[in-house]
User: Fold these one by one.
Assistant:
Number 1:
Amino acid sequence: MPKVLVVDDEPNIVLSLEFLMQRAGFEVATAEDGEQALALVAEQSPDLVLLDISLPGISGFDVLERLRADNTHSRLPIIMLTAHGREVEREKGFALGADDYITKPFSTQALVDKVKGLLNEER
Amino acid sequence: MRSDPIMLSVAFGYLALLFVIAAWADRRAEQGRSLIGSPTVYALSIAVYCTAWTFYGSVGRAAVYGPSFLLIYLGPTLAMLVGPLLIRKMVRIARAQRITSIADFISARYGKSDGLGALVALIALLGITPYIALQLKAITLSHAILTQYPAFPTDILADAGFWNDKSFWVALVLAVFIILFGTRHLDASERHEGMVAAIAFESLVKLVAFLAVGLVTVFVLYNGPGDLFARAAAHPALAQALSLERVPGGALGWVGMLVLATLAFLTLPRQFQVLVVENVDEDHIRRASWLFPLYLLVINIFVIPVALAGVLLGDASLSPDSFVLTLPLAAGFDGLPLLVFIGGLSAATGMMIVETIALSTMVSNHLIMPLLLRSSWIHLGSRLSGGQGELTGWLLGIRRVAIVLILLLGYLYHALIGDAYSLVTIGLVSFAAAAQFAPAMLIGMYWRGATRAGAFSALILGILVWAYTLLIPGFAQSGWLDMALLDDGFAGIDWLRPYALFGLEGWDIYTHSLFWSLLANVGALVGVSLFSRQSRLEQTQAALFTEAMHPELMYRTPLWHGQTTLGELHKLLSRYLGTPTALRILDGDDRQGGDTSAAHSASPALIARAERALAGALGNASARVLINSVVRGEALDLNAVLSILDTTSQALEYNRRLEQKSRELTQISEALQAANERLRELDRLKDEFVAMVSHELRTPLTSIRAFAEILRDSDNLPEDKRHHFLEVVVHESQRLSRLIEEILDLARLESGRLTLHPERLDLADLARRSADAVQRVQEERGVTLKVDTPSSPAEVIGDPDRLEQVIINLLDNASKFAADDQGRVRLALSRHKQHWRLSVEDNGPGIGEAERERVFEKFHQLERQDGGDAPARGRPRGSGLGLPISRGIVAHLGGRLWVEDGPTLGGACLIMELPQAPAEDTATSPFNSD
């Protein structure tokens, strides 16, 4: 069973994402800030990360950059989540190596489809 | 030691020494190693101001009138200290126009008028001759005292013929000296180097002599100044000798004397000669401006001590004017009186030499030459073509004869009427005459509108008033006229009394005369100038004088438009200046292109140069007449100078306007740029705000949408989950509405449209109610809340709902940031001067110095120092709008909100301060206190 890591500092958003991923049949780990996220990636080697950008402390972009710099996780599928609807943010995310990008508020169906799509590609 | 032969040999030996010095200086000048190219020599030559009158008369005046003698020296000091710019301008004009004397200066200013030149020369002759006589009188008197002491000389001239009078011979020797060193060159605008060197030397001699008398008096006859003054103080008649009340005419007398001395310093012919004509370098003025006043100070320092000592001698038969001599004589000195005599001689001869040179130049150039040029006897038209010989020797001859005549005139005045006046009186009368030149000269240098007619009327009126109020009364007092004139006025008309003109009484005679004569003088100059027109030449000259510091106009002179040939010009110049000079002037002109044939026409520049050279020798007026006699056709191109002035002033004006315009444009563009930047900044802030707002709104919206979709799509959700998710949706919706409220509040606050409903309220009560409202939430978060409010009401004016919102926000924040474990929050209220301070403190990590203002920025989220997320775990994050809104509300209520270190709990402390409500009348009324 693929494992998805959900990273967000809003507890309710984490709760919704956790439920959605579980319902789609994935194992779920959650983190509420960047450092926790990095620790969990190292510890549990998830198959995909849903990563919020505006995190307290080290931001989502920082996490993304560090993961991509690390050889073992350079190909880990990462979907950026952001409440900023701006083009620049999206471009920056892709430039840093994000696989996809989802703007809040999102359609739950579209989100699940994207996660499934990415995981299938990996296989 | 004081026998006549010794005296004579000393005196004439001294004069011989002057010859040697002057000859040496002239030799040096010819070798190109000028002696007078030094500012010190310049300053010393200006000291020709100190004549025998200073040398003997100052002590006399001090003995009679106290310290008033100082005014005669304060005037020049003032002029030198504050007037270097004025003097610099005079020197520059004189150089540019080849000015030879003050008569030439005034004549040149008013269109090279020969009439004005003649008038000034006449006035100078009339006013200054007595002054020369005064010097001769001083020499005679000092010689007589020296040879006859202790008998006081009386009737010096009564029984002896003039051939027995030493001063006659002195005058003759001086005439020879002046002819030798004052008329070496025809060009009077050239420096008389030997003469100036001799004058500077004389200034040193008189200074040394006077200091010697002073030092001997104070330190040999008395034991220092203390001793002298103590003895003087014990002397009843001297007790008030130094008091200022002894100045004639009181305070007005002071002012009058000061003005008189200041003007005379600039206008006395000899002062104009050394100050302006003999100046070799404008920069010398700078050193002279302090060195000359210093000289005056030093030469005057012993005047009062010598005067006191003289009076203390107690010999009533001695004239105070001769104390300088009689004091050392009475003390039995032998050599010192001789030195004093030499000092007096040097003071007298110095004045006579310079004054005579100045006067003779004026007389020959402005009185005699114009007459000769007009008479048919010397008329150039016929003479030039007739090829007569050079006139240079002839011209110098005129000047030499003038010198002898002037000195003889002085001698005659001295011999005939000199005894009637005291030294001081003659000097001051001369000063007042010279002062009449001041308005025409000084105003003419700064006011372009002063006209020739104005200057004429000014000089004539001024000198008439001077004569009526000073000269004629003097004659009356000498017994030459009926004293009734003084007592009853002219023809018995009371208000025409010379010493009380128009009923002006109680002034001393000099101030009185100066006042009326200058009033008439200046009044006529300004009045007539306003109603008369200037000729074109006058306009040009006026412009050249007033704009003398204008770099483009320096050395400009109106160009001749008419035609003449080189041959004619050559003839004219050789005739008046001599062939070598003429050739030098003509050869210097390269623009003739090598064609020097006599028939070739002369260039305008060459004609101008020829005129300048003639002006240096004959004065401006005569030079113009001479050039006019050879130039045919249209005379002068007067427009050239005026157009330079006009175009430059137009260009300047245009430039000034352009500069102003460009300054204005720069300012506008700067303002625009600033406004633009401000707009950009506002735009950026707005973008940021919109992004923040959208971010903040999207967050709850995300949860709401996600759970709504989950609820919609998940058919078989367990009841508890369904319930929980619905709770989340409700909670997040509430959060969303709250956020929208806050954003609206903020928008209203910032646009100033927030409506508050202020009323008198008890802040303590409000604080307790707010604490109750958050009690439950605090407990949930595991935070203990302590409330410290006074029992008595804390009255402020405020909107209760809004203030409650602020207090709840503060409490909410504090409980979020309080320590995870055993979190504590304390609310306290206390009075501070005229304010109530409500503080909310927590035991959290506190807020760093750098963050304390930033927490009031919109959407600012605090980050914990330890890197954890902002509020402690399990506590909701704020929107980042609470504090900015709170601060806005408090500010609207006239209060302040800020962050400090918590005093008791060690965390952050937010303090809200509101002004105490003013005392309410009804509340203090005993009838309402239930």
Number 2:
Amino acid sequence: MIRCENLHVTFNPGLPTEKLALRGIDLCIPSGEFVTVIGSNGAGKSTLLNTIAGDIRTTQGHIYFTERDVTKLSATARTKDIARVFQDPLAGTCGNLTVEENMALAYGRGSRGNLSFALNNKLRSIFREQLSRLNLGLEDRLESEMGLLSGGQRQSVSLLMSALQPSTILLLDEHTAALDPKTAALIMDISSQIIAEKQLTVMMVTHSMRQALDHGSRTVMLHEGKVIFDIAGQTRANYQVKDLLNLFAQARSDGEELDDDKLLLDA
Amino acid sequence: MSTFAFLGTLEIGFIYGLVALGVYLTFRILDFPDLTVDGSFTLGAAVTATLIVAGVNPYLATLLGTLAAASAGLVTAWLNLRFNILHLLASILTMTALYTINLRVMGKPNVALIMEPTVLTPFEGLGLANMYLKVGFVAVCALIGGLLVAWFLNTQYGLAMRAVGSNKRMAQANGIVVNEKVYVGLALSNGLVGLAGALFAQTNGFADSTMGIGTIVVGLAAVIIGESLFASRSILVIVLSCIVGSLLYRVAVSMALNADFLGFHASDLNLITAVLVALALVFPKLRNEWKAKRAQEDTL
């Protein structure tokens, strides 16, 4: 379970460039729930995700994993509970290490690295088995340098890596945005499989309203650092993209139209 | 080149092979260009020589010299990580400070070890000529150092260190404590360089405040020469190629100095070094260009 209590994040406080990125987010994601987060550019989606991951310090408010207050824990310490997949396929893996070395790193997540060999045949067979799920032929390329793989392949491996260690929370940051539609669909497919299999608590930030409605069980929209609507269950099941747009317009008392082209295009 | 000169070349080559291992750890593994080594080479030599003269066991003195140099690496890492000073600048600051510290450690510009016991003393009764003994000893040291570094980089801890140098964000997302790896890496690197300094002082019979000047360039030359000759993905091969690179570099330098028709003097060493490093850097690029050109011509 992730619980955010009155989260505030301010960048460059007291300077002319001060930005109130999050302005009081209250959000509770029960264990095993898959929440999609949408919002226009600058709404605070990525800030929220990075704050939960521990990359960004909170200015005010608290974050709890289950009942444990993790507000003061570093990003590294939070990796015991959190696995992440980044938007940039290059960010989630090391280009100049091999596929198996990258997977070995993910396999050791949360445990202290010790002086035993990082790779052995037992691990290799686990990795091979995992990679074969992708149907990309990567199971025969364990010793290839990660940098030689395509963006889609790298993102697929990142996804597998996030599930190599038991974790309770998975944070997906527009993880299909940089991929072509076919690969994006494949990645989304594998994501859903892994999430269902491991019963993860998931927060997925996305730019696409379609994707937000098609996946998960609950959708939250952020605007200017606040939650402007939060739908789930039957209401959400009946929703179409245009309903989301209407809801957005209603939620904004001044009737401001959603002006983000990308949001509309992806719809 | 006489046998004596050749053995001398190999001896220096193996000693600087340890320097190359250290430089490889910082430049290549951690992506942290560290110039501290110019100071920590001398520090290792200065501490060891001073302690030996004071009557300390040479092995203990060598260990302490190595640890002193390792702590110099920690200072550089601290300046960089704690205060966000650019890595290059942080290492230059430490290197500059070490020049004074080395003079203070020795109490004078140089310490002679001519009649003192050294790490070689226990082996002198074995009937091996001194010059062979020296080469053999430093060769064993360099090879053990290389094997240990290769082993280390293949452990979970070493792999985590490689990840830090390759992609900090990924490393962090996988629970790796980035700063700790940088501290340990710099300490190991400078420790190896300090050990090289300590061995140099004992095999050559002196420690001198200026002996470390240019250490970084020599180490880098060895790493780059090794890399351009042995393109491999195996850590063991890469690490051993650093040592081979150091040997080849020394052989190339002494051939250049010995070739009468070139007319070089011993004082031309720095120019030769710079030219050799430049060649080693340019060679792989030219080779790739030739290959690309030939492939293009073949398709036409």
